[in-house]
Model the fold of this input.
Amino acid sequence: MAQLEQDRLVRKEVALGQVREIPTPVNYIGSQLAPTQAVQSDDVIFSYIAPDTESLAPARAEDAEAEMAQKDDTAGYGRASIIDWAIKDHYRASDVSRYREYLRLAELSGGGNFPLTVTNMTEDWQSQLARDLARRRRSLDNRLEWLAVQGAFEGSITYDDGKIKFTTDFGRPVGQQDQAAANGNWTAANAATMDPIADVITMNDYMYDTHGIRMTRAFASEKALRNLWYSDKFQVLAGLASGAVSSGTDIKYLIPSFGTETAIQILQAATGVTFSVYEGQYRTRPIGSLTWTWNRFADETKVLFLPPEDAINEVSDLGFGRMLTSPHPEGNWQPGFYEWERSTVDPWGMDRGNGVKAFPVYPHLEYSYVMTVL
Done:
């Protein structure tokens, strides 16, 4: 095992402490679907995913940056491997040398107004480094969220950036993936036949008859759950006659208290399934474009149903899912986030980066169900 110099270990301890203190966005569900679990080597992760991969890259390039961690003004960027997702920032020679000159001036100056100007400049530099650190952490969180959500909602992870290509299938049965709601989509056009309560009960009966387990948790988009009130049957619960709400009229304007939360409570009470709204998104902007695009981590037309955790723990040491993370030499051979600095190529410039070696696994995806409702 390679030994790192003492100064590198000291810097690593500080930097890793900083990046790990930045919290994951509260609207992410990746940590619920696949909590992080440290493993001692990459082989543990590859043992789950390697048989189903194509053109697998065993290690990332030195300048690799994950697709969703791409910086807008980066003209060229590398590609991350299947488990090593990383991003860096390059600081130009003029920026680095000016900062070092200001530090030297601050040391030589004994007082007055001039040192105040120097202090402001050095503080601005530190603020820039902190902003870049937070952005890199957010970009890596985006990648981990995308991996966890894709695996849970789609039953597989398909990645193709033109250089690295792989598909990992976690084995959800075909009869439980993207199955249509039994009584039609949850839309205004199906108001007369739409029956969300019956749809969930039918799904749960199928899961119990097939696997001896019932679903108790679900993640759905705001749009899907808001549409529950289009159902004539839900309108009866509001005290209206079936079909009383004419086309184009929103029941929430007739009875303001009957919003999304009320519909969720009714659905939960009738089915025993706890529904959570999931609206996680990330944004991208192609190089050279001025237009931002918002992308959803999960398809808003789908509802993911999960069993209780204790039921899964009886059959799997990993639970429903885990985000496995393995050690990296730049992280002092510890799992989780790592950092690096490089200034030897250009003695006046500097690179700073963060990364994480991680990939989700779902050992028992047959104990879940995805319903298409829109």
In short: The first strand starts at residue 36 and ends at 38. The first helix runs from residue 6 to 21.
